[in-house]
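Bug #77: duplicate submission created two jobs. Keeping one. Sequence:
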Amino acid sequence: MTAIGLAIIYVPPLYLVAVSFNPALQPALPALSDISLTWYVALAKERSLMSALQESLLVATVTALVATALALLSALAYMDLGKWRSRWFMFVLLPMFVPGIIQGLSLSVIFGRIGLKPFWGTVAASHLLWALPFAFTVILTSMAAVRRSYLLAASDLGASWWRQLVDVTLPLIRPGLVAAFIFSFLLSLNEFGRAFYLVGRQNTLPLAMFGKMNSGASPTIYALSGSIFLASILAVAFVLLAARASDRKLRR
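Kept job's structure:
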């Protein structure tokens, strides 16, 4: 059953990657002798897609940076809270349960009321609400590596709260910070519903790809999708390797 579940998840994107190497216009698996990078080379000429990609990369980077920083502060607050922990936890996770369409529409109305015109910042604001709960969960999980005895020992040696954070906590949770950043980045990069209501003149990549599909898909769409899929796999692999290296250091 596990193998079937994994196949359902991974076979479609892997098929899309394979199709992207077919130089023909039809989305079919290429023969080994026909494998080509034609559509990857053609991506450079797709100005609308490249502009949308740049817009999405900007939004995703800002979203990931802010989400990681706020998630870290939220996790630190959670660790210091007593009986209010559970309430704080649910408060931070609440945006996760709000449908993206409703969240995007409500933010669009609010921004319109205050006279804020749609641009990449309004999209990043909506993506931040979506990514923050996930980043918070990842960082909070990594906090398990920070034992209270470590902090007490640092305090006995005269370390202030700030020095404990910089010299003890942050090095121990570094893999969690990296994972939260990458997770937030990928969530923002692929988000459609929230961006639909808040995008400005320049579409984000999911919106641009949706428009391309409706007007007749170009094979360059498959090449771009394959590139993003492979980049996502590499990012996840980097997180896993970083976490493994951190575990080895702790064991030493």
